[in-house]
Write a structure and sequence with these properties.
The chain has about 220 residues and is α+β, with helices and mostly antiparallel strands. The chain has two domains: about 5-145, Sandwich (Jelly Rolls); about 150-220, Winged helix-like DNA-binding domain superfamily/Winged helix DNA-binding domain (Arc Repressor Mutant, subunit A, Orthogonal Bundle). About 40% of the residues lie in helices and about 25% in strands. It is built from eight helices and eleven strands. The chain has helices spanning about 5-10, 20-25, 110-120, 120-150, 150-160, 175-185, 185-200, 215-220; strands at about 30-35, 40, 50-55, 60-65, 70-75, 80, 95-100, 105-110, 170, 205, 210. The strands form three sheets. The protein has a four-stranded antiparallel β-sheet with strand order 1-8-3-6. A four-stranded antiparallel β-sheet has the order 2-7-4-5. β4 (about 60-65) and β5 form a beta hairpin. α6 (about 175-185) crosses α7 (about 185-200).
């Protein structure tokens, strides 16, 4: 797939047609960089001077404390921008490390060049402002999720977010190890909490499928 075809589906270039994107690429200096699995894309507290868009592969944002415990913030997949909310801040040092989950290709545009792109294209400017606003909301929700909820509350909230329409059967693509990193807890603690939900007959587990038996009780836990 051509780069312009990939960018059409991205957050920043959403709403632009292919000819507009091709014209923009022809008049904008950009770089393509490839990272191997577990290679550091960006170190914590490093100054961010690039708009970085994931083209293929996937990266994760993570933080670690002095004991070496790692908290995964989220995975960033193709079409999404890395740490955009910090690009134009007074302090451009990002508070997380960014690591490649697999072989990953990233498009980079220097901050000065990207600012010129936004000045010349109101649609890209609007997309960027919307993304920054959305990230602020995400980070606020993430802070609440990590600091306020019980373990069962975190897992209950996760299940409710994974529901498709009104289906009570949820196919889970994450392992308990993955979820424990996202929740900022140990895997045994998460496993114990899930076991309690099963014992209370709020959920049933069949392989990778979670069946919700008691929606109200699950919602009650999600509010804890």
């Amino acid at each position: 797939m051509k780069l312009s075809e990939i960018l059409i589906q991205s957050q920043i270039f959403n709403g632009l047609d292919e000819s507009s994107i091709v014209h923009l690429l022809m008049h904008t200096h950009y770089q393509m960089k490839t990272y191997e699995k577990d290679e550091i894309v960006f170190h914590r507290n490093q100054d961010l001077n690039w708009c970085m868009l994931v083209i293929s592969g996937s990266v994760r944002g993570e933080m670690s404390n002095i004991d070496g415990k790692i908290l995964k913030i989220e995975d960033i997949n193709p079409g999404r921008v890395i740490a955009l909310a910090f690009l134009f801040g007074t302090n451009t040092k990002i508070p997380v490390s960014v690591v490649a989950n697999c072989k990953t290709e990233i498009l980079r545009i220097n901050k000065v060049d990207f600012l010129r792109v936004m000045q010349n294209n109101t649609k890209i400017l609007t997309n960027t402002l919307q993304l920054i606003s959305d990230r602020s909301k995400f980070l606020a929700n993430k802070l609440y999720f990590l600091s306020m909820k019980t373990i069962k509350g975190k897992y209950a909230s996760f299940l409710l977010e994974q529901m498709y329409k009104d289906s009570l059967a949820i196919n889970i693509q994450y392992t308990q190890e993955d979820l424990s990193e996202v929740f900022g807890i140990t895997r045994p603690s998460l496993s114990r909490a899930i076991g309690e939900l099963v014992s209370e007959k709020i959920i049933t587990i069949k392989g990778k499928t979670i069946i919700i038996n008691d929606m109200q009780s699950l919602k009650n836990y999600a509010n804890q």
